[in-house]
Amino acid sequence: MPQQYVASDSTTGLQVQVTGEFPEDPDDRVRIARTTNLFTRLMATVLSTTNDTERRERFRAIETQLEVADALIRGDLAEVQRLIRETLHAMGISDEQLREVEQQLREQLRTIGGDGLAGMLGLDDRGLDDAGLDETPPDPDAPEDPDRPRLD
Questions:
Q1: How far is residue 152's CA from residue 145's CA, in Å, rounded to a whole number?
Q2: Are residues 83 and 112 located together in one domain of the fold?
Q3: 67 and 46 share a domain?
Q4: Residue 140 pLDDT more than 60?
Q5: Long-range contacts of 83-90 (CB under 8 A, 24+ apart)
């Protein structure tokens, strides 16, 4: 028999109902309640936004974060990277700026923890292109960058 959890926002009166077969473990049930309460609070906040444009932006922000969470849970790192890159592009951050940040991060990690720490985080001698983070395919006719590490 399906079980049900209902979360309500006292300020707006918004109510979210989750119905299904829930695990018996009490910790799982607490997680269901907490997640439903959080979702209800987020929706109430967005729905109480009077500016239409701002409300739509907030909806999209929640949607994107839920998509990232779903991809992380499924272990689809390519999708996580795509969603994050898409979000950063929407914020006006270019691929070149991402590469600059990556290079700075790599240098900082080497400074504080040697090459081992950078390697553990996947930021060793591989760049965005080599790590599969760059969605733009490399131009085979472009001159090779002599400062760019290569994986052979």
A1: 15
A2: no
A3: yes
A4: no
A5: 85/133, 85/135
